[in-house]
Amino acid sequence: MPAGQHTANIIDRIVVSGSTSVIRAKTLESKDQASAEMPRGEQRKPWLYLAIILGLTMIISSFLEHLAKGIPLGFIVPFLNEPATVSMILYHLALILVGGYVGILGLKELVLERRFSVEFLMAVAAMGAAYLDFLFEGAMVLFLYSVAEHFEGYIEDRARKTIEKLTEYMPDMAKIIQNGTEETMKVREIKPGMALLVRPGERIPLDGIVTEGSSHVDQSIVTGESTHLSKREGDIIYAGTLNIDGVIKVNVTKSAEETLVSRIVKLVIESRKRKASIEKLVDRFARVYVPIVILFAILTAVLAPTVLGGPTHVWLYRSLTLLVISCPSAFVMSVPATIFTAITVAARRGVIFKGGLYIEKMARAKTVVFDKTGTLTLGHPTIVEVTRFADNVDKHVLTYVAALEQYSRHPIAEALVNAASEQGLDFRRLHVENVQEVSGKGIVGTVEDVKIGVGNNELMRTCSTNHLDFPDTIDDKHSCVFVSVNDSITSAFCLADDVRHDAVEAVRLLRSSGVRTVMLTGDKASIAKEIAGKLEMDEVYAELLPEGKLKIIDSLKVKHGLVAMVGDGVNDAPALAASDVGIAMGGSGVDVALESADIVLVNDELIKIPYLRKLSQRAVKISRQNIAVSLGVKIAIGTLGFLGIIPLWFAVAAGDDGVTMLLLLNTLRLMRVK
Asked: Mean pLDDT throughout 301-307?
């Protein structure tokens, strides 16, 4: 069979036919569209019944032939000119029924798309065997093919369900608030700007921002995050995620076809277009392989009796074996099925590959380059040190600081408030008045009748009496804010952009697998070296402008080969584009990341980078194994068939359908990669 055909049969059914229910996420016309687009799924159902018919025919007919010589009926069958028996009639009825059905499918493919399909070749082989009076072999060919088709469908269903899980829980209806009243509306009719009401236990129907209430949300179906995340006013929330324990109001920001789930599914489906070079090689090989083997089969039937001698029917039988071997289904489907299975498995874990090309490149990458801010680090300051200048400092000074800073939107203020929240400090109940934010310096106010000032040394000069006794900074590597209580500096908080919780482990795993790790940043060298030291990076480059990052990436490609670049998907777009594989952190900038990168970490988990490299390497390895096994088996079976050592049914069982199922099972090993 030709290069594209079985690929279409396998891959389209693995995900694209399976994606008839996946594509529903793009329009959220889920139930209606899914039912309208299921003919491929329905097409698979007859194969089991056809296999049962053929199996029963062979069992009953063989039983009758051995015990009663087929039960002669006492007349000659027209056209065949053979004595009629019950077993012969059963065989011919089954072959006409099943072979006709398979042949029509193949003939339709040949006429409309001008290519030999596996159905056409199998039908010709079965009918040819019947013509030569090898009725059992003809029935066995179709039986094995029907069983293989049904079994492949079962395996493909398992593979496509991986991506279907992204959409199977998408609700069709949602509750909205209009004019102060609650209404139920179809999700596909809801527009951005409308207000959703989501109760505990309900799925979030559309992407949006929480405007009222708070709750824990299970968003594992979208990002792969296993723990429930707290969502409150101002937080982004994604369609398909599950509201756990609170009532929330959500302002819709995306229509049904623009949600994160929809875009992820669309990217996964479209990733088939970006083929790996090994896929293209297999396609080109198959386009040459198929016609050559078919021509050889024809020459075997026509010329071999004259050139090599022997009965015509013997060489015709052997040519049918070669015809079956001409089906390149095993090696044609092995690579795209493996690559696409890897893409869908990764998608379920919050990693979006935008094509098989990037799986192949990621497997070969020798260097992974990381941006610092927002990639290796959190991208916002956190408290790393607290310094007290007096023994009698109130240990709850952070409570007073947070009570005051909650009225500021400065990143440092948010860091102090977050630190107080994480420690469980009840700062919101404190009485705060006379709040004044001093631009570029800090904030002052009164908390529970205590005068509090939080800011830099310039602010301290105006609101403290002892500022001359303290240095301008505590640590030049960190941002420091002083705290004055009743006009006296009592303590300082040192803040820094801390590393992500999984960055150390991600870098360690990459280095242990032989990958060189490099950090690029525009920050000062002292800060960069401190972060690189914590992570044990191989190389670090600091104080870089965007064009400087590009030059370093180019030099790394020359020195070490393929380079993968990990960035936040916004500021690092040029560097991501210059690298062989651009990996973007999704996070709040997920829209930009989906557009700019080759791979997207939806949940910003750096630990997924060693995983996706391992997955990529396994996918490439399995693809090569499948190609080698399928070609080896084809050559061996073809040689044995030409020599007449094996029967036709064995060529089908071992050389085509059997090895195809074996390779599909081998592909499913990707689902076990951790």
From this structure: 85
Strand segments (E) across 557-603: 563-567, 581-585, 599-601
* Token code pair at residue 477: 């590597």
Q: CA nearest 571: which of 582, 555, 562?
A: 582
| Strand 248-252 versus strand 236-237 pairing type | unpaired
3-class DSSP string for 54-107: HHHHHHHHHHHHHHHCCCEEEEEECCCCEEEEHHHHHHHHHHHHHHHHHHHHHH
DSSP 3-state of 177: strand
642 within 8 A of 597, measured Cβ to Cβ: no
Residue type, 284: R
pLDDT tens track for 560-583:
889 999 987 555 667 777 888 989
Is residue 494 within 8 Å of 475, Cβ to Cβ? Answer: yes
- 605: alpha, beta or left, given left = phi > 0 and alpha = psi -120 to 50? beta
Q: Is the CB of residue 652 less than 8 Å from the CB of residue 125?
A: yes
Determine the Cα–Cα distance for residues 518 and 538; give it in Å rounded to an integer. 6
Check: CB of residue 518 under 8 Å from CB of residue 369.
yes
How far, in Å, are 281, 396, 528, 586, 612 from residue 374 at the CA level? 39, 31, 13, 11, 20
d(CA 443, CA 438) in angstroms, rounded, equals 6
Q: Give the position of tokens 């949940």.
A: 603
pLDDT band for position 267 (50/70/90)?
low
Note the maximum CA span of the chain.
Answer: 123
Q: In sequence order, what are the residues at sequence separation of 6 or more whose Cβ sits closer than 8 angstroms to the Cβ of residue 602? A: 222, 223, 224, 260, 264, 350, 351, 352, 586, 590
Average the pLDDT over 400-413 and give the result. Answer: 87
**Mean pLDDT for all residues in the chain:** 78
Summarised one tens digit per residue, pLDDT across range 541-550 is 988 876 788 8
Task: Indicate the DSSP class of residue 385.
Answer: E
242: left (phi over 0), alpha (psi -120 to 50) or beta: beta
Q: Cα separation of 39 and 45, whole Å? A: 10
* Dist CA 240 CA 171 (whole Å): 8
Does an H or E element contain 182, and which? strand 181-186
Distance (Å, rounded) from C-alpha 577 to C-alpha 583? 10
Residues 515-558 pLDDT 10s: 999 998 877 788 888 888 889 999 999 888 767 888 898 899 88
> Beta strand 488-496 with 382-388: parallel, antiparallel or unpaired?
antiparallel
Residue 141 is encoded by which pair of tokens?
A: 């060919």
CA distance 16 to 22: 8
Q: How far apart are CA 586 and CA 593, in angstroms?
A: 6
Write out the catalytic residue numbers.
371
Residue matched to tokens 């991506």: 163
- Of 78, 60, 81, whose CA–CA distance to 70 is shortest? 60
In total, the chain counts a number of residues equal to 674
Give the Cα separation of 2 and 326 in Å (integer). 9
| Sign of the torsion angle spanned by Cα atoms 624, 628, 631, 633 | negative
Q: Which residues contact 56 (CB under 8 A, 6 or more apart)?
A: none
